[in-house]
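Page 42, continued from yesterday. The earlier attempt failed because a stray header line got pasted into the input along with the sequence. Redoing it now with the clean sequence only.
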Amino acid sequence: MTSPNTTPPRGTPRIMLTAEQTAAELNIGRTTVYALIKSGELRSLLIGRLRRIPLDEIQAYTTRLTNQQHPGDPNDSEPRGGGTAAF
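This time it went through. Structure tokens are written below.
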């Protein structure tokens, strides 16, 4: 008997990332991701022995960081990226 294919189809959005994937998304090191988790700045989940970071936690972290560094900026409520850059 074979087990069912548990790999999502290509292009399916992920809802949780590994520390390595999170580091790549944030353009930081894996060790920094673990330090952020340990400090409580980035929340993660344990699934058995596997640590995963929900995508909404990554977005919440970047929003908090932006608000701390640019308080009162009216553009902070709008998601960044995906638009055309003005040079």
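Notes: Residues 55-69 form the longest helix (15 residues).
Reminder to self: strip header lines before submitting.
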